[in-house]
Amino acid sequence: MKVAELLLQIKAVKLSPAKPFIWASGWKSPIYCDNRKTLSHPTVRTYIRQQFTQVIEREFGKPDMIAGVATGGIAHGMLVAQEMGLPFVYVRSSAKEHGLKNLVEGDLTTGRNVVVVEDLVSTGSSSLNAVHALREAGLEVKGMVSIFTYGFDVAQHAFDHARVKLVSLTDYSILLDQALRSGYINEKEMPLLNDWRQDPADWDSAVKA
To answer: From its phi and psi, is residue 85 left (phi > 0), alpha (psi between -120 and 50) or beta?
Structure first.
């Protein structure tokens, strides 16, 4: 609940039902969560770092290294690695087109297992691409942590299929509940936001129908 409260306080959450945001997947969304804003607020990023560290130690033990997913997970991953005294690597969204053409950046000889840090999980596609890259590099992925997840069924199925445990600090349901409590949204907006959560791929078509 605290993480959701902080995201709302720093206005990392945007609502725009009339002019939906368009994701890379092509989905249209009435809500957008910009977790990069957390990095501009020292008390917020410190709290997230502390929560990540606690969750990792509780759920996965102490890994050999931490990996961040480009781009939103890199800074938070590095903060967590510093807090835990661990090596850090990061996964690019695509391999470099020059030089060593790396997809995973960093010294991969410093450990054999890793916990992955993400800022946000939507469909899970880019997050699991990072997991695949780390496995291809010979690392054991112990699990993934994220600041926020929308909790879509498609993402849960994908993580289950990939045999990756995902633990998020907050999720869509908690965020909506906190937003309603704080007056960030009102009761009239709740049905629309809940409908989108149930069927994000076809939500815009249903609204216009």
So the answer is: left
Cα three-residue angle 142-39-196, rounded to 5 degrees = 70
Task: Give the residue-averaged pLDDT of 84-104.
Answer: 80
Distance, in Å, from the CA atom of 174 to the CA atom of 11, rounded to the nearest integer, reads 16
**The 3-state secondary structure of 126-144, one letter per residue:** HHHHHHHHHHHCCCEEEEE
Indicate the SS3 state at residue 118. strand
pTM of the model: 0.92
- Look at the chain and count its residues: 209
Extract the tokens encoding 108: 């991969």
* Residue 185 scores a pLDDT above 90: no
The answer to whether 132 and 92 are in contact (CB under 8 A) is no
Domains in the chain: ranges and CATH: 2-196 (3.40.50.2020)
52-56, 153-157, 184-188: which has the minimum mean pLDDT?
184-188
Alpha carbon distances (Å) from 125 to 35, 65, 90, 133:
18, 22, 17, 12
Instruction: Answer yes or no: are the C-beta atoms of 91 and 130 closer than 8 Å.
Output: yes
Q: Is 160's pLDDT higher than 60?
A: yes
pLDDT averaged over the chain? 91
